[in-house]
Amino acid sequence: MSFDLEAYVPGIFDALPFVSHGSAPWEMIGSLAALVTAAAARAGVAASRPGEAVFVHPGATIEPGAVVKPPIFIADGCFVASHAYLRGGVLLASGVTVGPGCEVKSSLVLDRSVLAHFNFVGDSLIGRGVNLEAGAVIANRWNERADPTIAVFPEGRRIALPVTKFGAVIGDAARIGANAVLSPGTLLPPGAVVGRLQLVDQAKAPGYSVGPAHE
Questions:
Q1: Enclosing domain of residue 122
Q2: How many angstroms separate the CA atoms of 103 and 59, rounded?
């Protein structure tokens, strides 16, 4: 069953021309090692560590104490604060901020998005201009369920994923409040608003909706 990623992040395949058009986000996350290398080559950024796929643009800032593990590409204008932890394949597009104490695992974070501080983002695709307030979590695994199957519910259709770890697709300009939790398989449209302390579990309520951007 097809998945229309551009409904959440319009123009993503133009912005990432090295990604096969029509790829599903969980497929992209599974190919992050190749995507990181392709993104670095397109930006003309050489490896920052000999023999390792760590590509940091000269215009990016990484504070002392941050941990960045390969494969990783950090684009121009990014800021990675002290004690951030990036692992498992990470692609940060231009102008992304990863604040202190954040953990980003196997994820793509697109232009100008901000992970404020003490966030966990696992196996996810974050659109442009997204803001996560302090402590917001994007969970990537059903640890508490006997059946670890993750499903997504675009337009009410159920798609069971071929992976056991997948977090969310967050549409452009969405805002996630402090200490909110997005359960595995969450899909948020552009401009969505999730309130502070809110739990989003679309597997229990596929018709779940969030507030518009003007709220």
A1: 5-200
A2: 22
Number of domains the chain contains: 1
Task: Let me know the angle formed at the C-alpha of 23 by 53 and 91, rounded to the nearest 5 degrees.
Answer: 30
- Please check whether residue 9 lies inside any domain of the structure: yes
What is the predicted pLDDT for the residue at 213? Answer: 40
52-85, pLDDT tens digit by residue? 999 999 999 999 999 999 999 999 999 999 999 9
| pTM as predicted | 0.94
180 near 137, Cβ under 8 Å? yes
Asked whether residue 165 is domain-assigned, the answer is yes
Q: Is 87 exposed, middle or buried (0-12, 13-18, 19+ CB in 10 A)?
A: middle
Long-range contacts made by residues 53-56, C-beta under 8 angstroms, separation at least 24?
A: none
Q: Is residue 212 part of a domain?
A: no
β-pairing, 120-122 with 97-98? unpaired
In this structure, is residue 210 part of a structural domain?
A: no
Q: How confident is the model at residue 210 (pLDDT cuts 50, 70, 90)?
A: low
CATH of the domain at 86: 2.160.10.10
